[in-house]
Amino acid sequence: MAGPVERTIRAIYERQRQHIWTEYGVQRAEMALEREGLLERAESTPAICFVDMTGFTRLTEERGDQEAARLATSLAALVNDVSRTRGGRAIRWLGDGGLFYFEDASAAFAAALEMSERSPAAGLPPTHIGVQAGPVVFRDGDVYGRTVNIASRIADQAEAGEVLTSQETVGRVGDDEVSFEQARSVELRGVANAVTLYRVLRRA
User: How far apart are CA 124 and CA 77, in angstroms?
Assistant: First the structure.
């Protein structure tokens, strides 16, 4: 088994190396475009949605790996179904959460709110979700770029049951189905200035 295992490890390492270099290259290109004022000229407003299960580490400690894995699998099935229904595309699943791409930011907001509402109703732990609108780069079935990174970091800032987005996204997207409530300003790794976050809510 030593040969196949070694080849598998090398393949995983090479894929990760390619991923890191692609991400680095995209970030450098986007920084240059942003300096020239070209990045914001995209006509469409696609969006990235990061959804995570709240308290996954604690669940694993309290209920064991098998039960935690069952909950993660159930959440994956639920959010994949919501994403597909809303026209989204699952890009990757990260154990206790996932990354989804939507061609339209309004669809991302609708999906995020539905995911947030249906998870507790299905007996699952609450989610915390981040949505960021903006251009992304597709390569080898994955997505890269500033939009992806910010969406992930916004999700990390969200509390249980929250759907958060940035002031930048609120300024780019008009949506009659949702409302935005200013939440707080935070420092995000890799972002020069503080980012003002907004809660995404169903319009009353």
Answer: 12
**Number of neighbouring beta carbons within 10 Å of residue 198:** 20
3-state SS, one letter per residue, for 80-120: HHHHHHCCCEEEEECCCEEEEEECCHHHHHHHHHHHHHHHH
Overall average pLDDT of the 13-38 stretch? 53
Whole-number Å distance between alpha carbons of 169 and 197: 10
Q: Please list the residues that pair with 100 across neighbouring strands.
A: 49, 90
Cα R_g (the chain), whole angstroms: 18
Q: Which helix (H) or strand (E) holds 38?
A: none
165 phi and psi angles, rounded to 5 deg? -145, 175
Confidence check: pLDDT of 61 > 70 = yes
pLDDT in tens, 109-123: 999 999 999 999 998
pLDDT for residue 166 is more than 70 = yes
What predicted TM-score, i.e. pTM, was given to this entire model?
0.77
d(C-alpha 63, C-alpha 65), whole Å: 7
Residue of 194, 175, 192 whose CA lies nearest to 183: 194
With a cut of 70, say whether residue 1 has pLDDT above it.
no
Is the CB of residue 88 less than 8 Å from the CB of residue 108?
A: yes
